[in-house]
């Protein structure tokens, strides 16, 4: 029998597609009456999960792991509302594990000691202990170090969930003992499936209320949720409460439900948006660069973070093709510091558009990298005698400065003079491009014989 035909944990408490025990994954009816719609509509089985086919589909990673009879320690990384917590609960059901949640914020090492003791008892009883750590990036170093031996020995199966990039927040030792699985934000079609499922569910959803969702209102809810299932369902619930006696949710009602929505912005999204901003500048896409700049500012970021990146882009990607770009970017930062928002956004906008539309060259940047490599390769070469200052008669006798030629004594203030150590003689780190002002630099270097 192949792995693909093996049952999912044949001793599990329910068959694939069936109902799990109400104590874990199921949507209970009594104690969830007052729970938010998003909580009531949590999937009760892997089959009910919408999206994440790469993980829970028939050929998904988690399906394959479950078929092999042992679940390794996992870290689920994905944006809010992508189903990390729900998936953790359902995985515990699938493997008949003792599911123990741990809060990195409110609990510490003493609680972890209790969990380890409980895991040892569970092992004696033949049970797996699954420790679920929501927002695992909040675990401090002491907590991570304490967990490490138990994860390494297999005493506990760690299941972490995080919106932050694990490589930035989880220490390398713990990360190497867990497999990172990525959950994606839900696309519009899958969000529509969730909304319609909630509208039709008469037991835990809004089916009994007779709510009618207009097509344009549905589109607003989908777009406003930005891939977050929880936001979509919460907005649907608020919209249903704002609806009139006819139970109809119009576009105006959906818009009102979302009027105070705060865009997601954390360490992970901040890094990605700054990357998008910089790459838009490099690609000479001024409108896109302005869009990302405004997204970042609207999310509450200090505009000086953007301006520092703008200056870096001016010198890295525009460089000597337009030396004015670095000056414009630096002056924009100074202007913002003097003006503050919102007037300070004007010099920011001007500088963004200037840098984006300036001719591009990274040849000064690559010259720096080449010079750094040479400095690492030849770190101890002596300064050539002709470049040394002769501060004393003895130094002059040694030949310090003997063959030095003062550039201003020559035509065009240029003179042939070896200025590199003997070990690097003849190497050239900078070759200008033929774009913008750098073309003139290249012509001047060719006139001097510094370029072929």
How does the SSE layout of this entry go?
Layout: H1 37-40, H2 53-56, H3 61-67, E1 74-77, H4 84-94, E2 98-103, H5 109-124, E3 129-134, H6 141-153, E4 157-162, H7 166-169, H8 172-175, E5 179-182, H9 188-200, E6 212-213, H10 215-225, H11 229-242, E7 248-249, H12 251-257, H13 267-282, H14 286-298, H15 303-318, H16 324-339, H17 345-357, H18 363-377, H19 393-397, H20 437-447
Parallel strand pairs: 1-4, 1-5, 2-3, 3-4, 6-7
Description:
The chain has 452 residues and is of the alpha/beta class. The chain contains 20 helices and seven strands. The chain has helices at 37-40, 53-56, 61-67, 84-94, 109-124, 141-153, 166-169, 172-175, 188-200, 215-225, 229-242, 251-257, 267-282, 286-298, 303-318, 324-339, 345-357, 363-377, 393-397, 437-447, and strands spanning 74-77, 98-103, 129-134, 157-162, 179-182, 212-213, 248-249. The strands form two sheets. Strands 2-3-4-1-5 form a five-stranded parallel beta sheet, sandwiched between helices. Helix 13 (267-282) runs parallel beside helix 15 and helix 14 (286-298) packs antiparallel against helix 17. The longest helix has 16 residues, at 109-124. It is extended, with a radius of gyration of 31 Å. The chain starts with 36 loop residues before the first helix and ends in a 5-residue tail after the last helix. The relative contact order is 0.07.
What are the main properties of this structure?
extended, 452 residues, 5-stranded parallel sheet, single chain, alpha/beta
